[in-house]
Write a structure and sequence with these properties.
Bound molecules: coenzyme A
Radius of gyration: 16 Å
Distance between the termini: 38 Å
Structural class: alpha+beta
Number of strands: 7
Shape: globular
Oligomer: single chain
CATH class: Alpha Beta
Strand order of the largest sheet: 1-2-3-4-5-7-6
Amino acid sequence: MNPKTPLLDELDIAPMAPADIEEILAIEHQAFSNPWTRRAFLGALGPDSYALVARYEGQVAGYGIAWIRPRELHIVNLAVHKDLRRKGIASALIQRLLRVARQKSLQRAVLEVRISNAPAAALYESHGFERIALDRGYYLNPPEDAVVMMKDLRDDNGKGEPGRKLSDRRISRSGPFWHRPWLWFRRLR
Ligand SMILES: CC(C)(COP(=O)(O)OP(=O)(O)OC[C@H]1O[C@@H](n2cnc3c(N)ncnc32)[C@H](O)[C@@H]1OP(=O)(O)O)[C@@H](O)C(=O)NCCC(=O)NCCS
């Protein structure tokens, strides 16, 4: 039996609410050197975002937040309680975020990850994200480059459109910022 199954069976994933933020902030401070503030989380509860919280045994175990853009889902925050990692919780959150993106017929999902954050990059790669660009100096505290990762949702959105190879896409891996519209949004982390 998959050892992750018992926990995942009991995982409750629901839209984030203001009452969750206290517990979320505790995880956020564990997980990041430049944590989001309460205000940033409250701002993520608006109509242009999709914010999820995963609960296990009544406690917040993890959360994921994405901005919904006209063509893309931009995953901007994802973390799991340090005692509950490697049990599939982040994967369950990503799958739920991607499901919403497909329901909205979005074309792609994008995100940034610190170049040193190998666990997160491995997680995203395990969900089919590809490294498409390096954004120099994207992060502060400590300063660090971001790897930009993308998953093309047209490959599997059920609309029958043929999948495209990365090399077919009209996306510049190293071109200027304005060639990479998914980087135009406000940078929070
Ligand atoms: C990154 C993070 C969200 C992963 O959460 P998680 O619930 O442990 O991830 P999952 O259990 O769903 O992992 C799924 C897969 O991702 C990869 N992965 C996850 N953590 C990994 C690690 N520490 N080392 C290597 N691969 C890892 C593995 O392929 C894993 O599958 P496996 O366990 O069957 O090998 C969690 O470590 C975390 O909160 N880190 C701090 C915050 C952070 O970096 N967020 C991402 C910002 S971009």
